[in-house]
Amino acid sequence: MERDDPVKITNDTEKDITPPWLEPMLKIKFFHNCAIHLGLRRKECNFYCTDCLEKNRAICNCCKDEEHSDHHVIQIRKSSYHEVVRVTEVATKINVSGIHTYIINGSDVFFLNERPQPKGVGAAAGKNAASPYFCAVCCRSLLNNFMYCSIGCKMAWIKNGGNASFLLEEVKEKCDSNRIGNENGSMSKDSGEGEEGSSAAKDVKHLVPRLRARPRKGIPCRSPFF
């Protein structure tokens, strides 16, 4: 993936490229016991409701069933002590273009945040690794042609002025149209061009390069007698 040069992102436009719930979710601590349901079995807080930004807290399975049954709730999982989320749970809410997709337990997942690297591994080591691909933020070596190793690294790229967006293309076009309409004193629609090309969960499958299966061996047959 081609890396665009950073562009200046102002506070007025930052909200137009990042959903308001995403950055708070990346900062929250998960996998602690719920203070409300301490006596129950499913008390581990590993869910986040994107519709309840004012509460902004991790919730357990019981909280989800009692208070968020009709909300969009994302389940946070763990892989090697690091938090991950399934691609299918976030791809309909944010633009996941450029984020490295991993396959864990048969599911496509994203890491939420940058992972610690061994001592001595950094920009120089990442760029000199066997793979020619590396994260644009933390320089972690990547297996395929992606730009970020995690959702958090894409967020950091945007916060530092990088030319990227978390908004789905159709949502971003609407925001661009409204902003231009306000500047011109009207609400004329401006379709514009999306900065990155993912629009829904159906576009996620191409993010994970699949190895082509080996061709099946044909059924042997005896040569004819003459």
Automatic annotation (TrEMBL):
It holds the Pfam family PLATZ. Residues 179-226 are annotated as: Disordered. Residues 179-189 have a biased composition (Polar residues). Residues 207-219 have a biased composition (Basic residues). Signal peptide: none annotated. This is PLATZ transcription factor family protein.
